[in-house]
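Example 4.3 (complexes with small molecules)
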Amino acid sequence: MAEILQISNLSEHIYRVRLVAPRIAKRRKAGQFVIVRVTPDGERIPLTIANASAEEGWIELIIQAVGESTRVLRDMQVGDHLEDLAGPLGRATKVEKVGRVLCIGGGVGIAPLRPIAEAFKAAGNHVTTILGARTSDLIILRDDMDQISDELYIATDDGSAGEKGFPTDIFARLLDTGNTYDEAVVVGPPVMMKFTSLKTLDAGVPTMCSLNPIMIDGTGMCGGCRVTVAGEPRFACVDGPEFDAASVEWDDLLNRLSGYDKIAERNHTCRIGTDEK
Amino acid sequence: MKNSPRIPMPERNPRERARTFDEVKKGYTEEEAVGEAKRCLQCKKPLCMKGCPVSIDIPAFIKELSERNFERAHDIIKNTNSLPGVCGRVCPQEEQCESLCILGHKGDPIAVGNLERYVSDRNMGGHEDTKMPSVGRKVAIAGSGPAGLACAGYLAKRGVAVTVFEALHEIGGVLIYGIPEFRLPNAVVQAEIDELKRMGVVFETNFIVGKTASISELLDEDGFDAIFVGAGAGFPRFPDIPGINANGVYSANEYLTRVNLMQAWKEGSKTPVLKGQHVVVMGGGNVAMDAVRTGFRLGAQDATIVYRRTEHEMPARVEEIHHAREEGVDFELLANPLELLLDDEGFVKEVRCIKMRLGEADASGRRRPEPVEGSEFTLPCDVFIVAIGTKANPIVSRSTKGLETNKKGNVTIIDDWGRTTRDKVYAGGDIVTGAATVILAMGAGKDAAKAILHDLGLNED
Ligand SMILES: Cc1cc2nc3c(=O)[nH]c(=O)nc-3n(C[C@H](O)[C@H](O)[C@H](O)COP(=O)(O)OP(=O)(O)OC[C@H]3O[C@@H](n4cnc5c(N)ncnc54)[C@H](O)[C@@H]3O)c2cc1C
Ligand SMILES: Cc1cc2nc3c(=O)[nH]c(=O)nc-3n(C[C@H](O)[C@H](O)[C@H](O)COP(=O)(O)OP(=O)(O)OC[C@H]3O[C@@H](n4cnc5c(N)ncnc54)[C@H](O)[C@@H]3O)c2cc1C
Ligand code: SF4
Ligand code: FES
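Answer. The structure with iron/sulfur cluster bound is encoded below.
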């Protein structure tokens, strides 16, 4: 149903697809996602809307090829159609003029961070961005983020781009040099969100995280995306995906996400490419 | 008055069927159906009809069937029920029409459900429905479950242009994603939907009303004259017990959706599902029965229902409980899970339960289950499925100004015809009543269709 308008690589495993989706493009807000089914026998997978044009009627997704669906999609061509595309789902990011906003993105989490940073900037905030990844190839959207942000910092584990180290190191330094922040948004792999938000919260900065639990329907029907927030079960697809990092029960989320690969093993079914994760 | 016994519907052998998704009940042969139909007394004051929520003219269709006028029988049912193949399979007839059938006083009531199913299956896909001439009005329907489909069918028959918007990629609501193939084959639902298509109903999947477009947009920009909301009660509830977020714990909806909608049981399906050896299901309704029987079909060694009251209080249909038993499901009655114990990889490995006893009756008149102190026991468990009910889906109500809901989040209707607190917006089915039945959802969809016709000045009488 959704036609592919453009598809291009951002790094070896990360690519960008532009899809015809006028309805979704018109309504989507920062923080929202779509559910995609690539092929008729494919899975339903959630992907953040990284960019969109209401006038031209398209949305863009930025995707890391990790498993079957994301790889099949990567190998599709302009003019091909996805089997299903539904959205925009989830609640929009609460964007207000608060003053100085810190945006920290890790890995493919930089994709969802982009529209959020853009919205905060448009609302008149001073936006400081820190991007982190294992190595320089995995830093995506660098130019976009540079344009959106008032300040941009980069950290790589191996020092191949920006500074060697973690985003939290840069954050610590920024604090030391007297910077203050009114709000932080952290998006990336769950482990990174957990540890990064511990630091920002420690520094007294209210912090939002965009959670990525397993989803099926994305409309509140299956309960698969449940996460414990402030001791209550919440459904990330309708109550989130963003939550106050201080209230998220991270270990629950981490366990459920890692369980997925183990399920594949337990069923003894061949899940192509699970080794690469 | 001597009453000949009811002709049973042939069923697959329990041991063999418990491992496949083929339908359990095989359907009547023509002779069986006609024979059963001939038992009907053709009462002057047919009580059976009083028990039918949509008042199917039961004696009339049975009479045609007994005379082998299969198409006429079908037309009579279709007059009031647009999904007979579905209702013939999943309606709780034993509590409805069949419970009131006069023959039931001295012997077996007529097998109304089996006959309805026979008539429907026999005519499946047979009729070429023609599109009615347009009356120049268009109505949107949010949700393609039985409520939405019934509303769509009723309106389309009267020349209204209907578009059904469905959030998922398949049409049918719970009929498709919830109720398993062995009880309601997806092909049966598909055949009924095809008929609606031939009547001109347009289906748009992957469209979440309230997200892809708001109710206001559909009314003001897309020019719909009215909207029926049939969004269902698919928001699962979880018990507040330790371990409930462990791996291997599913809501019945997630488990059944993976298996039924995403066909995870089939070779080549990309959707994984954990195939447990020891499946434990918490709950006692139809949903719990469907989940536990699905567990067997995915290869479980044992599959157990844990329910806090007795079998007598179980909300599931008697037939489903019976089928589950036959297939080898264990029942831990008067028992309640207290805690899920996990292995070192974060998967559930045991359920710790406690025995219950029935105490004093509560406000609802049901005796309240109370834990029996010191009676804890554990069951081995690698898949734990929660089937303790659902709440209203909040997407439409959260996104629609002026659409009031009650404390539970169900859309409030202001009369018996599904009118809501917002002009031009109607609602019915599980989103209004909370989880109920297929036939009640269909009745509500039809009532709302009548109200819509009335309010659009398209009165029939
Ligand atoms: C709200 C949300 C937004 C997301 N946005 C993006 C995005 O913009 N770009 C991107 O590359 N990825 C994003 N993800 C993660 C993405 O959904 C998974 O990488 C993808 O589902 C993997 O699918 P697959 O079939 O290729 O992999 P497989 O490993 O074959 O998928 C197997 C199953 O695991 C689930 N799964 C595996 N890993 C994850 C995960 N980390 N999060 C959620 N489900 C997972 C899938 O849904 C699927 O059911 C997002 C996840 C969520 C919940
Ligand atoms: C496993 C199971 C077994 C059951 N067994 C029986 C049985 O044997 N007999 C019986 O009578 N009843 C049974 N029921 C109950 C019965 O299925 C429901 O009462 C009935 O389906 C309710 O119909 P509905 O149209 O109100 O909603 P649903 O069938 O829930 O359909 C709602 C539809 O709306 C869609 N939707 C939701 N929100 C939106 C939105 N914003 N925009 C667009 N679409 C939306 C959903 O995706 C869904 O497809 C069972 C239920 C389950 C879950
Ligand atoms: S009550 Fe029973 S016997 Fe009488 S008409 Fe109805 S089905 Fe036939
Ligand atoms: S994805 Fe099913 S409830 Fe959120």
